[in-house]
Amino acid sequence: GENVEQHPSTLSVQEGDSAVIKCTYSDSASNYFPWYKQELGKRPQLIIDIRSNVGEKKDQRIAVTLNKTAKHFSLHITETQPEDSAVYFCAASKTNAGKSTFGDGTTLTVKP
Amino acid sequence: SQTIHQWPATLVQPVGSPLSLECTVEGTSNPNLYWYRQAAGRGLQLLFYSVGIGQISSEVPQNLSASRPQDRQFILSSKKLLLSDSGFYLCAWSVQNSPLHFGNGTRLTVT
């Protein structure tokens, strides 16, 4: 089955700096890659996603890049703010977008 | 708009007791439904998913079972809880080619 590895497990940045989280996947048939943000004690919520026919997608301060050849995708957050502090999960799936395999998460801390 | 309801929010149960967690979805028809478990500080593990009434797929062998008695209702059960069943349980729904939408979760502590 699909295996998703996520790095780093923890990331601490200064407010205003950029943060990058990387994920690799094993199944070349995977074609949908969402990113979720989970604040402490709350449910994960989608922040951005990308499909395999696209190499990059941006939404304000957040961007995701996908390298299908290397089977890795990354989340980029620019101009980080304290409210960006949370756990971020990457995921990969194919065909049925709900049956996703998740990475173990990255705890991002943005210091004011 | 679509909404998902999951209850209870927290639950403390003794080892060996039964479990029933319920999830309902409003505002969409024939959704795919999922139960995930999240151990403390860990990622999300898919336990069960369902593409229709009475259709349940189990992803990992465990002490739990799931049922879908109605199109928008998904139930997670256990006959006898184990200590290792403690965790944060999340119900989610999706439709084809869309992301997951999670409920608020149930924090289960087995004592």
Please tell me about this protein's structure:
With 112 residues, chain A is mostly beta strands. Chain A is built from no helices and 11 strands. Chain A has strands at 4-7, 10-14, 19-25, 32-38, 45-51, 56-59, 62-67, 72-77, 86-92, 101-102, 106-111. In chain A, strands 2, 4, 5, 9, 10 and 11 form a 6-stranded mixed β-sheet that branches. In chain A, strand 4 and strand 5 form a beta hairpin. Chain A is globular. The mean pLDDT of chain A is 93. Chain B is mainly beta. Chain B is 0% helix and 58% strand. Chain B is built from no helices and 11 strands. In chain B, a hairpin with a 2-residue loop joins strand 5 (44-52) and strand 6. The interface between A and B is medium-sized, with 22 and 23 residues.
Distance between the termini of chain A: 41 Å
Number of strands of chain A: 11
Return residue spans of chain A where pLDDT drops below 50 for at least 5 consecutive residues. none
What is the gyration radius of chain B calculated from CA atoms?
A: 13 Å
Low-confidence stretches of chain B: none
Mean of the pLDDT scores of chain B? 92
Helix/strand/pairing category of chain A: mainly beta
Helix content of chain A: under 10%
The portion of residues forming beta strands of chain A comes to over 45%
The description of the largest β-sheet of chain A is: 6 strands, mixed
Please render the helix and strand layout as text:
The complex is a heterodimer of chains A (112) and B (111).
Chain A: E1 4-7, E2 10-14, E3 19-25, E4 32-38, E5 45-51, E6 56-59, E7 62-67, E8 72-77, E9 86-92, E10 101-102, E11 106-111
Parallel strand pairs in A: 2-11
Antiparallel strand pairs in A: 1-3, 3-8, 4-5, 4-9, 6-7, 7-8, 9-10, 9-11
Chain B: E1 3-7, E2 10-13, E3 19-26, E4 32-38, E5 44-52, E6 55-58, E7 65-70, E8 73-78, E9 87-94, E10 101-102, E11 106-110
Parallel strand pairs in B: 2-11
Antiparallel strand pairs in B: 1-3, 3-8, 4-5, 4-9, 5-6, 7-8, 9-10, 9-11
